[in-house]
Amino acid sequence: MFSRVALRAAPRQQPFSLVARRTFQTTRAQLSSPYHYPEGPRSNLPFNPKTRFFWFRYLCYCVVGFGAPFGIAVWQTYRPRS
Prior knowledge:
Pfam families: COX7C. This protein is mainly alpha-helical. Helices cover about 40% and strands about 0% of the residues.
């Protein structure tokens, strides 16, 4: 990590150095490509959080997911021994 910082901070004395300098480049999104998917917030989610009752379904999912192990433990504790 420190070597890159040192190389970046060192002045270049040769026009063609052995260490290539990396630059960040941006390209325009190619929408004609079949492999390009929409980008942006909430575009990669398998559900739509903008629906009317999303909060209720999410709350139920969290309660069941968190409470199921405790409910199973209580059920196994109080079941009759055989």
